[in-house]
TrEMBL record:
GO terms for biological process: methylation. Keywords: Methyltransferase, S-adenosyl-L-methionine, Transferase. The keyword NADP does not apply. Pfam families: Methyltransf_2. The keyword Methyltransferase applies. It comes from Gossypium barbadense. GO terms for molecular function: O-methyltransferase activity. This is O-methyltransferase C-terminal domain-containing protein. Residues 10-121 form the O-methyltransferase C-terminal domain. Gene3D superfamilies: Vaccinia Virus protein VP39.
Amino acid sequence: MNILQNSNRATFRMIVSKYPTIKGINFDLPHVIENAPTYPGVEHVGGYMFSSVPKRDSIFMKCYEDVPDNGKMIVADSILPDYTDPSLATKVVGLFDCTLWATNHGRKERTEKEFEALATRFEP
């Protein structure tokens, strides 16, 4: 199994330490990779996601093509809630989403339906 990771190295480290046969690539900005600690089975690669790697959709397509027939592709990301839900949890996620939007130009947050559409887009 291979993992392509960006940003949250702590999660990546936990997965690889629990499942030592997993090999992964931590792809992040060069200045982040420069200071990244080494972990067994993890290769750190510096680059810019939207210039040195194909467009987002083709990244998913290539991952999908590499997954064996009985394999899985798992994307771990936050899911935007239905904003008609008045709960405190929804308000906190909304605040977090606004913070990401303001600080991470170009970041895309998705609802559950958007993730489903993305996941099924490349099926034969």
